[in-house]
Design a protein that fits this description.
About 40% of the residues lie in helices and about 15% in strands. The protein is an alpha/beta fold. Helix 3 packs across helix 4 and helix 5 packs across helix 6. The radius of gyration is 18 Å and the shape is globular.
Length: about 190
Amino acid sequence: MNRALVVLLALLALAGCGEDEPSGKNVALAKALKAGGVVLVMRHAKTETATDEVEVLGDCSRQRNLSDEGREQARAIGRDVKDFGVPVKRVLASPLCRAKETADLAFGHSEPSMTLVSPGVQGTIADDDRRIKKLRRMASAPAGSVTVLVTHTGNIGGAFDLSVEEGEIVVVRDGKVLGTVKPDDWKRLAE
């Protein structure tokens, strides 16, 4: 194979060409989502610009909240998850307004869970570490059902060593990450 062709193929691979093709990993992820027995660990939807203020639980006016785009994103994710056939049974959310609103807009309901609160908001660093460890333990679901945990990037990074964008979902079975689904990936994953 000549050098120019090798370089071209390498550039195409780096550019992500072929990502629209279903991979074995995407097929396995799609099957796991439909079968259940997984936990969807979701970062809240898109928010307003960051603030330097200390966030206060129970006071949405003193928190970073969902933007209008984030509210629509949450609704779209909920529709996509439902249309995909994911058997969601239980939804838990951080008590911070952006996470609770994301969960309620996407799934119609949620239960607040202090385990899912953003690091640095409640308690000490040791408390944050305990919550992250508990989040890892929560990442298993009964066969045939799906639990959704709506939380924050710091928790997801601490528990699963991943950096995710707003609205992105980490699919976990028995503590093991099976993959991630970005907000706009649901339709591609369905193919």
